[in-house]
Specification:
globular, binds magnesium ion, 8 helices, 6-stranded mixed sheet, binds adenosine-5'-triphosphate, Rossmann fold, single chain, 325 residues, 33% strand, alpha+beta, 5-stranded antiparallel sheet
Length: 325
């Protein structure tokens, strides 16, 4: 297998703010054509890493290389990066075309090339013919696509996106995920995406970096992170997880890995506390001797279940963690 130089190499990066907050021990290689997502709760350091990549803050330690060249101390305009924010930051007094042409003009791109490239980019964004519109004549999702287009026209080696879809409503946000995946694959761009929404991260990313208080808790594909969380922190942050104590260990299992039996054939027993129908499946709460656990069961299986019923259950897949891990 060919081992290409990573598109982005982050080594021993730290950014410590005067009060001691910030990020530490960030080591990450990002491959060309990869969507990598920084995921974690508010304040874990996602934006700090993105700003460091874009050159908007001075780092305390460590280095960043892009395309094999060190950029750690270069200002934003000398880096091959583009940035897309949550607020689209389009100029309201300029048309779509003027917004898109701005950066290209600064680069002295010939006029006729600008026109052609804008046309092509609007085609890719599925917004052809919107050149003469003003931002306020477009929906939020459309404005964000124009903001992405504006970044992409400058052909960045890496596109940095800080919660770009957070201001959009749920349905548009899902569509934008699909669009971003399509555009990313079509243009083979490298994207560093920031979100605190685990579903967004799971659905978009080739790999996810789960952050915890300024450090990387785990890096992996969505499946690796979901199936083999490296710690109870990751396990509880991604998806839903039940925890049980056993001796010095924590046992963890997902609600979909609990199978309920009404014939008493399961290994453990409990009483059904509630059954909540959530669409094609139901969430069933089971009270056991020591704790309450959650099980997801296919809708058709709930016809045999009722609140107050004693059932038995098996765990199909169990993760174990040392206490405190
Ligand atoms: N300019 C600053 N000066 C001092 N502390 C800062 C500064 N910017 C961020 N911090 C702190 O650094 C930590 C990481 O902040 P950062 O903005 O990177 O988090 P985030 O993961 O992007 O959070 P959110 O999801 O809320 O956007 C936080 O504790 C924050 O309070
Ligand atoms: Mg942030």
């Amino acid at each position: 297998m060919k081992t290409a130089t990573p598109k982005v190499e982050i080594k021993q990066l730290a950014k410590v703010y005067p009060n001691g907050d910030g990020v530490r021990d960030i080591n990450l290689d990002i491959r060309e054509g990869e969507i990598i997502t920084l995921l974690g709760p508010s304040g874990c350091g996602k934006t700090t890493i993105l700003r460091a990549l874009g050159g908007f803050i001075d780092v305390t330690r460590g280095s960043i290389s892009i395309n094999g060249e060190e950029v750690t101390h270069l200002p934003p305009e000398q880096r091959p990066t583009g940035m897309v924010f949550q607020s689209y930051n389009l100029w309201p007094h300029m048309t779509v075309e003027e917004n898109l042409a701005f950066g290209l003009k600064l680069r002295k791109t010939p006029k006729k090339d600008i026109k052609r490239r804008i046309e092509e980019m609007l085609e890719i964004m599925r917004l052809p013919g919107t050149e003469k519109k003003y931002p306020n004549q477009l929906s939020g999702g459309q404005q964000q696509r124009i903001a992405i287009a504006r970044s992409l026209l400058l052909e960045p080696a890496v596109l940095l996106m800080d919660e770009p879809f957070s201001a959009l409503d749920a349905k548009i946000r899902m569509q934008m995920r699909e669009e971003l995946k399509r555009i990313q694959a079509e243009l083979n761009i490298t994207v560093v995406f920031v979100t605190h929404d685990q579903e967004e991260a799971m659905s978009l990313s080739h790999r996810i970096v789960v952050m915890d208080k300024g450090k990387m808790a785990q890096v992996g594909t969505p499946a690796e992170i979901y199936d083999k969380p490296a710690s109870t922190y990751v396990a509880s942050f991604i998806g839903e997880m039940n925890f049980l104590e056993r001796g010095g260990e924590q046992l963890a299992f997902r609600p979909e890995d609990v199978s309920i039996h009404t014939d008493g054939n399961g290994m453990r027993s409990g009483v059904i506390r509630s059954i909540m129908l959530l669409g094609h499946y139901a969430s069933v709460t089971i009270q056991t001797e020591n704790t309450t656990i959650k099980a997801f069961v296919p809708r058709h299986e709930t016809v045999e279940l009722e609140e107050g019923q004693t059932i038995s259950f098996d765990l199909n897949k169990l993760l174990t963690y040392k206490k405190g891990a």
